[in-house]
Design brief:
The structure holds two protein chains of two kinds. Chain A is mainly α. Chain A has a single domain, classed as ABC transporter involved in vitamin B12 uptake, BtuC. Chain A has twelve helices and two strands, in the order ααααββαααααααα. In chain A, strands 1-2 form a two-stranded antiparallel ribbon. Chain B folds into two domains: about 200 residues, Rossmann fold (3-Layer(aba) Sandwich), CATH 3.40.50; about 150 residues, 3-Layer(aba) Sandwich (Rossmann fold). In chain B, the strands form three sheets. A seven-stranded mixed sheet of chain B has the order 7-6-8-9-10-13-14, with helices on both faces. A five-stranded parallel sheet of chain B has the order 2-1-3-4-5, sandwiched between helices. By secondary structure, chain B is an alpha/beta fold. The longest helix of chain B is centred in the first third of the chain and has 27 residues. The chains are: A mainly alpha, B alpha/beta.
């Protein structure tokens, strides 16, 4: 096979991995740090994407600028959802949270179907089809932007968790809930903040994805399984893991498609999921339990 | 003393009942029993948009018939819609059919997806209730010998045959410039079946398929497929995919500047007004062979305006469902009854003219209308035009498309 095609497939895979990283970064925080399996992650992404769509079509706000609205809005939504619903219904039990988020996702998707209808929508912005030459590949500018911002976002999140007081509190709650409570950390608030940050990353992801992708009430399904795979591969709670995992999955999908055909190529993702669970359940960068 | 009171009450009730019965014939004569039409569409779940469009088309026809005085031969009987939701699931489609039988349904309309239509029509066959198929491509729907099933639109096989003829004509008209094609299709029955039929028939119009590329649903990125197509340098790209992948693929091919004489599809999942509106540069010059209305017909244009005035899109689901209800109304008018057996006979011998469509008069053979046909369409930056057959065409085809 032509070396140029292989190189181009590698570039496409890395860029695709950037999108996966974006979606997975919030999930790794919620799933990894707080041990909440957030089934509503996909439907929240969908909600954020519709937010970006309507900000552009109704108010004319550029998708990248809408990030400054969507990130705080999604944080607030996450915070209030946790405080008002998830936290209350879960009674501190992880398995309850699982069911609550599953119920939420069904509710949100069906409400979206009712209000937005079932069809897919795309947006057109002046830079949608601007192509940049990257080595042997022609790459749409929005994909490069989403890649760069995804990397920066994960670095910022990693720093936030490592260096700030709230970050330390999140880590403390993740490691030892009772101990954290004993030293005066408001555990419930930390849970709500973490859930809020997890959803805020989806606000950013939605802004970066809308110029590339489409939105429909079921768009969450397209990404959520891949995002779970990225989190498991990278290691739960690790932002470096989300980056490396996202890129590996992107490359796997791209090369799988190239060598096995686009239909068979996606098997690679499921294969990685199974192999990681079998041989390294804590993931590449996850803390061993 | 104790017995007089209940007796007198009974007497009053009996008197009331008698007066109601005596007065009833007048009311019954003025108000014939409505004919209940069961709409079995997926208005929730993955196919919700299409289901909603189908329901809208059927309702428009029912409202129009009722406003014009109902079915004349039945004393002005009105049509009444029983609204069903198959939730995009075959088993729910069947249970909706069963439920509507209890409610006294006279005929069904549905189901958008072949997978729902197949079991739902079978369930209706138990009761010998007429079932009109508005959308449902699989030819199996009418090939099983069910006497109650009628499909107005052409099936899958005929669409592919007609599409090949239309593509052959247009290519011949341009001096046979396209000699090779790459087929890209989604992996389910729809895409695989279409691509297989096309690949077999393309050599007959002197176009050689270079490669058939299958992709999964969903496919999140088409960059590699675009690269492969670029490497193969075909004259045509022929696509069979559902809406989301259709749009992503078309967009990627445009971004990667894959230069071909035409991007062509048969029953293209994403070829519609929405594509033209949202991605005009991507849609421009794309061609599709699909169900379409007759753009030269005033009634069709009036319906289009009616839908657009409500903020909707005049998609094929709308006018196919609309026409099926009109076809049923014609059968009721000729049978002068909603009796299932007689309506089935009236439908089977129907020669109704669906003027809104580019069709001839209906002629049902084993439930399939042989008077129907699709149209070759081409998108401009603002609209979709019929470019063949010529008697219905609203524009001339641009073929080959200008270089990117």
């Amino acid at each position: 096979m032509d070396a140029n095609i292989i190189a181009a497939a590698a570039i496409n895979g890395l860029l695709l991995g950037g999108i996966y990283t974006l979606v997975a970064s919030g999930l790794t925080l919620i799933y990894g740090v707080l041990h909440i399996i957030n089934f509503a992650h996909g439907s929240m992404l969908m909600l954020a994407m519709f937010g970006v769509y309507y900000l552009l079509t109704l108010l004319g706000i550029d998708p990248y600028l809408s990030m400054f609205i969507m990130v705080p809005a999604m944080f607030l939504l996450g915070y209030l959802l946790y405080k008002g619903l998830i936290g209350r219904l879960s009674s501190g039990k992880d398995e309850n949270i699982l069911l609550v988020t599953l119920g939420l996702s069904i509710l949100i998707e069906n409400l979206a179907l009712m209000f937005f209808k079932g069809d897919s929508r795309t947006i057109l912005v002046s830079y949608s089809d601007t192509m940049i030459e990257v080595g042997p590949a022609f790459v749409p500018l929005p994909k490069l932007i989403s890649f760069a911002v995804a990397m920066a976002l994960c670095a910022a999140l990693g720093l936030f968790i490592q260096r700030t007081d709230t970050g330390r509190a999140i880590r403390a709650v993740a490691k030892e809930r009772v101990g954290a409570q004993l030293v005066g950390i408001d555990v419930d608030r930390i849970f709500a903040i973490s859930y809020g940050i997890g959803l805020a990353t989806l606000g950013a992801a939605a802004s970066l994805m809308m110029p590339i992708f489409y939105v429909s009430p079921t768009v969450g399904h397209v990404f959520v399984l891949v995002a779970f795979t990225v989190v498991v591969l990278g290691g739960m709670g690790s932002f470096l893991g989300a980056v490396v995992g996202g890129l590996i999955i992107g490359l796997t999908e791209s090369f799988g498609g190239l060598f096995l055909g686009e239909s068979m190529g996606q098997i690679g993702i499921s294969l990685i999921f199974i192999l990681i669970l079998l041989f390294r359940p804590s993931g590449l960068f996850g803390a061993k339990t | 003393m104790n017995t007089t009171h209940p007796l007198s009450r009974r007497l009053i009730l009996q008197a009331g009942a008698a007066s109601a019965v005596l007065g009833a014939p007048g009311i019954l004569l003025a108000q014939p029993k409505p004919v209940k039409v069961g709409l079995v569409h997926p208005v929730s779940g993955g196919l919700a948009y299409s289901g909603g469009q189908s329901r809208m088309g059927a309702q428009m026809a029912i409202d129009e018939i009722n406003a014009a005085g109902g079915i004349k031969a039945m004393g002005g009987a009105k049509l009444e819609a029983l609204l069903g939701d198959s939730q995009s699931r075959p088993e729910v489609g069947v249970s909706e059919v069963e439920r509507m039988e209890q409610d006294g349904v006279a005929a069904y309309l549905g189901c958008f997806a072949s997978s729902i239509a197949l079991p739902a029509t079978q369930a209706a066959a138990k009761y010998n209730t007429p079932f009109l198929i508005d959308v449902g491509a699989s030819d199996l729907i009418v090939n099983r010998g069910l006497k109650n099933v009628f499909r107005l639109k052409p099936g899958f096989g005929k669409c592919v045959d007609d599409a090949i003829v239309a593509l052959g004509d247009i290519n011949k008209g341009a001096g046979g410039l396209a000699k090779t094609a790459v087929l890209v299709h989604e992996e389910s029955e729809f895409g695989t079946g279409t691509a297989k039929l096309l690949a077999g028939k393309l050599p007959g119009i002197n176009i050689q398929p270079l490669e058939t590329i299958k992709h999964a649903n969903p496919t999140r990125d088409f960059s590699n497929i675009a690269l492969r197509i670029k490497g193969l340098k075909p004259d045509l790209v022929i696509m069979s995919n559902y809406q989301n992948e259709y749009v992503l693929l078309a967009r990627t091919l445009a971004q990667q500047k894959v230069d071909v004489a035409a991007m062509f599809s048969v029953l293209g999942g994403g070829f519609n007004y929405k594509l033209v509106k949202e991605q005009p540069d991507v849609a421009h010059y794309m061609m599709d062979f699909n169900h379409w209305f007759n753009p030269k017909n005033a009634k069709a244009q009036a319906l289009k305006k009616q839908v657009e005035a409500k903020g909707g899109l005049f998609t094929f689901e709308v006018y196919l469902s609309y026409n099926c209800i009109m076809l049923y109304a014609d059968a009721l008018q000729r049978a002068a009854t909603a009796d299932k057996e007689k309506v089935i006979a009236a439908l089977a011998s129907s020669t109704w003219m669906p003027e809104v469509m580019p069709y001839g008069p209906t002629k049902f053979v084993n439930g399939q209308n042989e008077g129907g046909r699709g149209a070759l369409l081409q998108a401009s930056k603002t609209d979709i035009d019929v470019v063949a057959p010529e008697q219905f065409a609203s524009a001339k085809p641009v073929y080959p498309r200008p270089k990117m």
